[in-house]
Design goal:
alpha/beta, Four Helix Bundle (Hemerythrin (Met), subunit A), about 15% strand, globular, binds adenosine monophosphate, binds zinc ion
């Protein structure tokens, strides 16, 4: 089939035409969450953009198989193999077992994904399911001299590789974007860049989950998980590997090192990395204390779709700054958009020529390095165009296969939840605006009359600090 997709490949540092190993098929891998806490909306930006990539590939006709791991062991508080296992720290924090924490936060993660219309990957595999696979690969790396034992742990020997810093052009310092500052030197390493494949010794003796191995009772390192889980389900060749930019180094660099040493050939051709969501103080991260989650947004009155729109309006290769002001604008834009679409007459003839022309424009935007904001511009342009409502509605439905913004269903869903139909809601909004204007003019009698009139219709108005809210009385 025709390979239309182009995106920025971190490996070659340019936008490239995407050509999969097997015609029409895509083997795709995503680094999954470490389930020791709720995902913050920064993590979820990454999963939204990866979801967009997967859906775009499906939209243009590829048969995609997407695999994701769940990290439930081995991810230490520093990405560079030092500190306590994040899962153990999470369990201590909540006075639970690691497996209880893993179950709870895995479910919470998929609930958040559902709210954001992020499709669940075809295969989701927790690391603790694959201990045999990890041991098989580690055993082979020891046999072939790519790994060594030191101080009780098994390390990967990066000096055995022709090239370790494969995402080249960047210095080690630049590569350390997301890695925490608390990196300690491990005296067991032969080379500074070596990393742990299997731990039996650590400063933290209370590691809860441990397994027998030929090298002693212990647990796997974080990096080996993704290499083995992807190979287990996608085989020896992979098309696209994605993650956040902080995964480039050391995580993805190490994944490539051990996978290619094990396989003896190139492993994955395309690497796509999503930039961070920042707040005013910098990268949003869980270690900073209070985290912003989908539930926080909901508690503040935002539909999760508004956050998805916010992410899609930016380019995945640019850092994005979060603020409630921008989210408010996005919320107003989203409401207007879904109302506009809900007002379209669905019945009638679809203009095939127009439909195909807009579909092509939409596809072209997405195939141009996932230009999602341009794809949304195409949506706005088509809504303004002089063509039948039925054509517009059909296009909105079609685009939503990729955008997943509930474009054609949001209002119905909302009216189902609130028990108020779209027409009455429109009326309430108009009356709220009229009342606001009356209050501004100090015409309090009129303002009160509007409140009473709505009350008679069973609608209660509340004046809050965030503005006027309404609910069924
Ligand atoms: P973790 O659960 O910490 O392993 O992270 C899950 C995913 O979120 C990884 O792919 C990270 O690269 C990504 N990530 C972490 N912080 C951010 C952020 N502030 N913005 C966007 N993505 C992030
Ligand atoms: Zn990974």
């Amino acid at each position: 089939m025709e390979n239309k997709m182009h995106f920025y490949n971190t490996l070659t540092r340019r936008v490239e035409q995407f050509i999969p190993n097997e015609d029409g098929k895509v083997a795709m891998y995503t680094c999954g969450p470490t389930v020791y806490h709720f995902a913050h909306i920064g993590n979820l930006r990454c999963y939204i953009m990866e979801d967009l990539l997967e859906k775009t590939l499906r939209y243009i006709g590829y048969d995609v198989k997407r695999v994701m791991n769940i990290t439930d062991v081995g991810h230490l508080s520093s990405d560079a193999d030092t500190g306590e296992d994040k899962m153990v720290a999470g369990a201590k924090r909540e006075h639970k077992t690691v497996m209880e924490i893993a179950k709870f936060y895995t479910e919470a993660f998929f609930e958040d994904c559902k709210k954001l219309n992020i499709k669940t990957p075809d295969v989701v595999e927790p690391a603790t399911n694959c201990i045999d696979e990890f041991q098989k690969v580690i055993g082979r790396l020891l046999e072939t001299g790519y790994a060594y034992e030191s101080g009780g742990n098994i390390y990967f020997d990066t000096s055995k590789l022709k090239e370790y810093y494969v995402f080249s052009g960047q210095s080690e310092q630049e590569l350390l974007v997301g890695v925490r500052d608390d990196v300690e030197e491990d005296a067991n390493k032969r080379n500074k860049s070596d990393f742990v494949l299997w731990f039996t010794k650590s400063k933290f003796e209370d590691q809860e989950l441990k397994w027998e191995s030929p090298w002693g009772v212990g647990y796997p390192g974080w990096h080996i998980e993704c290499s083995c889980i992807s190979m287990k389900h996608l085989g020896e060749y992979m098309d696209i590997h994605c993650g956040g930019v902080d995964n480039i180094f050391p995580h993805h660099t190490n994944e490539i090192a051990q996978s290619e040493a094990y396989l003896g050939h190139k492993w994955c051709n395309y690497w796509l990395h999503v930039h961070h969501l920042n707040d005013k103080t910098g990268k949003m991260s869980k270690s900073k204390g209070k985290i912003l989650t989908v539930s926080t947004l909901e508690e503040n009155g935002y539909d999760p779709m508004v956050y998805r729109l916010f992410c899609l309006q930016s380019h995945y290769r640019k850092p994005l700054e979060f603020s409630y002001e921008v989210l408010d604008n996005m919320s107003a834009a989203y409401d207007k958009l879904v109302k506009r679409i809900a007002s379209l007459q669905r019945e009638g003839e679809v203009d095939r020529e127009k439909f195909d022309a807009y579909r092509t424009q939409f596809e072209t935007a997405l195939c141009d390095d996932l230009n999602s904001s341009m794809a949304i511009t195409v949506l706005y342009d088509m809504l303004k165009d002089d063509m039948s409502d039925a054509t517009k509605f059909a296009l909105a439905e079609n685009f939503d296969q990729v955008l997943s913004l509930n474009l054609t269903t949001a209002l119905e869903k909302k009216s189902e939840e609130s028990g108020v139909d779209a027409e009455l809601e429109q009326y309430i909004m108009e009356k709220i605006e009229e009342r606001k204007a009356a209050k501004k003019e100090k015409d309090f009698a009129k303002a009160d009359a509007i409140r009473d009139e709505l009350m008679a219709k069973g609608i209660l108005l509340e004046d809050t600090r965030e503005g006027v809210k309404w609910k069924k009385a």
